[in-house]
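Researcher: Structure for this, please.
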Amino acid sequence: MSADENTPVGWDRARELAYQAGLAASAGTERIPLAEGDGRTLAEPLRALTALPAFPTSSIDGWAVRGEGPWRPVGRVLAGGTPPPLTEDGTCVEIATGAMVPDGAAALIRIEASATGADGRVTGVPRPAPEWRLPGEEAELGEELLPAGTAVDPAVIGVAATCGHEFLTVRPAPRVALLVFGDELLTSGPPGAGRVRDSLGPQVPSWLRRCGGTVTSVTGPVKDTLDAHVDAIRAALDTADLVCTTGGTMHGPVDHLHPSLAELGAEYIVNTVGVRPGFPMLLARVPHPDGRPRFLAGLPGNPQSAVIALVSLVAPLLAGLSGRPFRAEQPLVEAATPVPGRGRDTHLALAALDPTGRVATPVGHVGSAMLRGLANAHGFVVVRPGAEVAAGDTVPFLPLPLLSGERP
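Model: Predicted structure, token format:
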């Protein structure tokens, strides 16, 4: 086990190390029904099982006609049926939107652009462009629609269904266990008498799910002894790919995380990150008897710092474990007000976006132990080491983890 806690890893480098560690450990696939796919990751390209559309499809309600008009109606075509061909010039069939266009039809005429004479014949003028969708217009049979690594959302499920899939081949969802450390924590009621209410146990599982993890257990508060910490971590590692802990990441008299990792033979991937708030955080690889490595992410005990550790280390690790691409670059926004730097460290400053999503305003109540600012923010303005941000500057913006299906 090696690390130098006096030399923090740069924030961008720490995120990349976390992602690469997860990607190297990503393995296996499973086949699941479409209805269970939301939030998962495609393990293989999604290909069309048929041309889309599979047959010529009417885009309008009206008439399918053959030859010159006026046209004599010889039938009706509704969606879901297979019509006989039009074989005689001067004939037509009434057709509904979504219905299969019969062979032999030369054009479609909208119902509102047609008229029916006293003899029952139809007149009208078709538009210059045919008003039907041609087979293969959206996709050809066997065409790759989405690559492996695509995050599955409701739209992806819809694409899979429309071209004939009933199942998806996906990466296993990373399993995550949460251990809450701290004898001073209350799990119910208001804080007082030297004890504080645990706010991480209730909120961290939801952040983990938004990052793509499946939460297997939440345990705590774990007693502040080395034996209790080691036992809790061992038990969690038996059912989880990643164990997240809260608190105990420093070297105080009741901070047992580092000694626990040494006891377990862990290897640091990242030990302390040059980011504020968020100090100190860590990510370690822990050996397991089955030969497949597990991971432990140590989140600081202060709530805002813990969330910054989640977006800095846990989110990229879970992206790697899920086999999906990692978006290292952040979208750019305009800073509404100045944002200070934090010297040699990256500063993640909580901010809210305006309705356009292009202007970020820092929020108040942003101490590392505070949550009020987090509840009013959409993400973080990223201030690079040695930099300061002036009002009007263009700056990177790191969104908070989104619900499955949401798009930044």
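Researcher: Any notable elements?
Model: DSSP finds seven helices and 27 strands in the chain. The longest strand covers residues 214-222.
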